[in-house]
Structures
1.
Amino acid sequence: MGRLRILILGGTSEARLLAEALAARDDCDILLSLAGRTEKPAVQPVPVRIGGFGGAMALAEFLKAGSYGLLIDATHPFAERISKNAAFAAEAAAIAAIALRRPGWQRLPGDRWREAQSIPAAIAALGQSPRHVFLATGRQGAHHAEVAPQHHYLIRSVDPVERPLRLANVEYILDRGPFTLESECTLLRRHHIDVIIAKNSGGTATYAKIEAARLLGIEVMMVARAPSPIITSVETVEAALAAIDHLFPPAMKRGV
């Protein structure tokens, strides 16, 4: 039996850690695919492909042409389109697929959360009275703020917002997590933030803003995740490795 070829759709810290763990093995070949939305992606431990595939069918053809045996969707929990494409492509290519999706944050005592189904819904829920809003959803959804120009916005993203927003009161911060509780509290106080709009991304890198909001009594508009495509899903790198070994037993177990 030949070496297992695995395509990881990445862009998360979990994808990098999984790639690192698989790279240490000698029974598989790994390619990590990044969408290319971040101008300076982190260094990765395996060969990397940058850019999209051109849709679900094109991804399926890529999988078949490369003789891949496993597709792992380890994209961001809000990368909904690529996750749908991944599920379709794996089925079309007749190969196994796993989704590595870290669990979402859970409401704790002291949290002032209001659930929203989307960024536009969260902005609409701010109301008509001017508020100081920390829009912590990244640059992709920042333009939605233009429909509510009465508010003061603080927007943080890894890369610049592609076009300056048509807003009178907006400040931009370029920064990449992980963030600390102390620095987030300082940021919220300095900008007089009274509400945060955040995606329920899960993980630890950006959780400090949620902790800071709890400590300071600040409201959080929490954007919920869309339902995930129906493929085998795991929440940790360790669980993903176990699932891979279950699908493709190591050579020793196969008697090779």
2.
Amino acid sequence: MDDLRRRAEAFAALGDPGRLRIVDLLAMGDMSSSEIASVLGMKSNLVAFHANVLEDCGIARRVPSESDGRRSYLQLVPEAFSDLTLAPRKVQGRVLFVCTANSARSQLARAIWEAHSAIPAESAGTNPGERVHAGAVAAAVRHDLRLDDRVRPRTLSDVARPGDFVISVCDHAHEALGGRDDVHWSIRDPARTGSDEDFDRTVGELRSRIARVAPQLTAA
């Protein structure tokens, strides 16, 4: 009965067109309340009301920005629904994963993407580091991913092409891009601790995200 009640409340919440539009946005990536208001042309107090309802029903959750503590992102809870699908979105070019240093998250995301989609993928950074993080290389080995540590991190301006579908996997990068990314995933930086546990957790989250999003994208 608890599960039935939870699902009934969730479907009731989705009966509102405004909340359903927000869920459609969150099905692809995380967004702040101000970003949702801008995209939907919705007043900020109405966005806040809808967000609270979605949180109360367990459909969405808030995660604080790793870049700006005053900011938070609304994130769809993947377990809330097993079948929340949209019509596939056509990608003209490649999928381009972006983080700040292009040394961990974006590199791992590109490696994971190869196993889920025929659409080619690349990675870049808004402020590239000197080398791929040793923790990312070790995690790739543990999880049987192809990650070449001889490839130096590259800047976004050198890698990006017209038609690329840009996915930021870093709050710093997303906020620096100022809306130039297509989708944002608020994923914590495992390099902050450098622990195997945090790198493994990052691989797991990237795999979960990619498994959900890859079927929603198709080559044009």
